[in-house]
Specification:
The protein is of the alpha/beta class and about 130 residues long. It has helices at about 50-65, 80-85, 100-110; strands spanning about 1-15, 25-40, 70-75, 90, 115-125, 125-130.
Length: about 130
């Protein structure tokens, strides 16, 4: 099995409403996401796929939905204020954790036809979450 990994970087804000620690407060992250694609055989160019194809696919999605956006649970009481002030945000069915974001990116890439192995999202330099379907 061959794999390649493309890293992308973006920023977002969020909060985890019911978190017992400081993550319950509004805050932001500059993150790295690593997208790993797998194939049993290389294509006619001798590649799993072109890195630029992964970049184009994931960057369009991230720019539209995640980068410089505020990610909130759909029941967050701050949503009416953000709507009123025309701030950019996305309301999610799940809490906006690194685990959930890695799954969102994974699902998008899979829907675009890539044979994605896993998506790893570093929320900080020392902490990351990974989503894969086994």
């Amino acid at each position: 099995m061959y794999t390649i990994t493309k890293e992308v970087y973006f920023c977002y804000g969020h909060r985890l409403m019911n978190h017992p620690g400081k993550c319950r407060h509004l805050h932001g992250h500059s993150v790295k996401a690593a997208i790993t694609i797998k194939q049993e055989h290389l294509n006619e160019q001798g590649m799993v796929c072109d890195f630029s194809d992964i970049k184009a696919c994931v960057e369009d999605y991230i720019n539209e939905h995640l980068d410089h956006n505020f990610l909130l649970h759909k029941n967050d009481p701050i949503i009416p204020y953000l709507t009123e002030t025309q701030e950019r945000f996305i309301a999610l069915d799940q809490h906006p954790t690194a685990e959930v974001l890695s799954q969102m990116i994974y699902q998008h890439i899979k829907e675009q036809g890539f044979n994605v192995d896993q998506v790893t999202l570093w929320e900080t330099a020392s902490a990351h979450a990974c989503y894969r379907e086994d």
